[in-house]
Amino acid sequence: MSETSSTAAASSTAPPEADTRVRVMVELRDGTTTQDFIAALSAPADAQVEDSSNDPDLPERIVTALVDRTELPGLRGLHCVAKLNVSEPAAKDDVIPDKPTLLSKLGFGVKPPAHVDPLTSKAGHKGKGAAIIIIDSGIDIFHRAFLDENGKTRIFAIYDQVGNRMGKFASSFQVEGDRSIDGLYFQDDIQKLIDEGRKDLPFQWNPNHGTMVASIAAGSGYEEGGESYPGGVAPEADIIFICSADQEYEEQKSKNLGYSLSLVMILKWLKQLAPKFGRQAMVVNLSRGDHVGGHDGSTLLESQFGVFSGDGRDSGVCVVKSAGNVGNRQGHTSTEVPFNGKKTIDFQILKDGIPPSLCVELWFESCFPMEVTAISPDKREVATLTVKPGVEPKAEGQTTAKKNQVLLTSNRYDSDNGATRVSLRIHPGEGMTGYETGTWTIRLRRLLSFNRETARVDAWLDLRDSPVLTPMRFVRSTNDMALTIPGTADHLITVGAVIRADRPKVAAPYSSQGPTRDGKPKPEICAPGSNIRGAKAHTKTGLMTVTGTSFAAPQVSGAIALLMAKKMEAGQPLPNATQIRHALIHSSSGYDGSHDPCCGFGTLNVDKFLEEL
């Protein structure tokens, strides 16, 4: 069907009513049970409640359910709920388009080279014996970057979480007793898929981003098919690829786990299967992120990364996370509301977008009672929420022109960090399309209390997609505190992007900035992220250049794998994540002891890092 006829058909059909259900991940309090949680749900039969008794990949005392957003304030207040996180679908893989700025066109500023190969060890380290675990959306197993010199696959294992959820898989692995893991492929299985030319499995549906990330971290070097690639940072490290079920494919919308839940299940799965992999050293690379949460490392998801790494103390285990690509997207702002005073936060919806809802989150200390009002572009007060004890924690309203549904909810003393979270969510009206464009206002009014201190309020837009798909921005924005979650967690290493390695303190403008909301100095380190060259999916030997922090992080992951392999070869103890973090910082190019919210402490220096620890 042509584009014209497709558009016409769509316009003649009324849009479906928005589905406001979301998947939540709940940590139960000690002494309570899943049944206590189910009893509090308004529609338990439709909630698809799961816990470790019917899904072994869930950690103990973690329960998941599908609930309506309007239920969230009440659920967070239940006596059985210790923590509750919404597990939204993951952001689409955000590759930065190559759009020169006016200054760069005029010859000013720092320009990246036409293409940049991944940083490698000049001392010749290759990473043999270490494993790099890539968590992403898919991988092209046929690409030359993942084959050895004999044409055999170098991918040690693939876990297809999407296939597992959908029942679309070609392999099962016996774990213990009569339990098996569906969608787990070892090297022989992968080689068989290659020999058979199988390209129909879910981990192959969306392989572009994951293929590039894996090739930068651990791809093979080759000169073939008219292409020459020197290889990734650790070209002899084992590749373990995990295709996460956190995006909405058309065939599995009801089976989507959301970003947070998908990762929590993967972390437990990795911890259980690590001994069976026979690999002492595991470096996990995560080049995707989320935008909602307290930005202080306190979410339920981020706490699970601490569990995974033993709070950074377990030897041979390290997690690397990209900083995010919203550094210049005007996605964070803050204001200070004086005692008995008012302040406003303005944001713009630039054009009708595609997402089913748009979201703004506010965070402030719970000692400050506040009145929060959402004002639409036509200056009409749509919904007002009073945030103080004893008041209903939600308010709803509707805009005049496009009947946008506006929902304000609050959660005082949030179980993650004890602060207050206020969420403003905007949905298209029933039977309508699009959003009220223009400038929206959030008015904040301090209510009387004994606390006369000024209340700082931080606000974030949920910029989970590209600027085209999520066309929002704050009018008066700050570029700080824009790291994507879980990049604000304590026990993982967050990586930003510089434009080029020889300018270690010149950050790429798109690279998300720190620090965290509670002041932790993140990102820790940077690597080149502009015009990085790596494997192009759906080609045998093709290469492409891409830009984003997604492609800076795997260079750091590869360098850590080199260190692990070097330690194993020398028969020395493997370092833990805490030791690795400090060694990366102290060996970085440009390190002078000071932290920059854009560049961290400096830029990755592979060989100096290998000498440091």
Please explain how this structure is put together.
With 613 residues, the protein is an alpha+beta fold. The protein contains twelve helices and 28 strands. The protein has helices spanning 3-11, 34-39, 72-76, 102-105, 161-166, 187-196, 208-218, 259-277, 300-308, 553-569, 577-587, 606-612, and strands spanning 21-28, 62-68, 81-86, 131-136, 155-160, 172-176, 179-182, 184-186, 222-224, 227-229, 238-243, 282-286, 317-322, 332-337, 342-349, 358-364, 370-375, 381-387, 394-398, 405-411, 420-427, 438-446, 455-461, 472-474, 493-498, 525-528, 532-535, 543-546. The chain has an eight-stranded mixed beta sheet. It has a six-stranded antiparallel beta sheet with strand order 14-23-16-21-20-19. Strand 19 (394-398) and strand 20 form a beta hairpin. Helix 7 packs parallel to helix 10 and helix 8 (259-277) packs parallel to helix 9. The model is unreliable at 1-18, 98-108, 175-179 and 249-254 (pLDDT under 50).
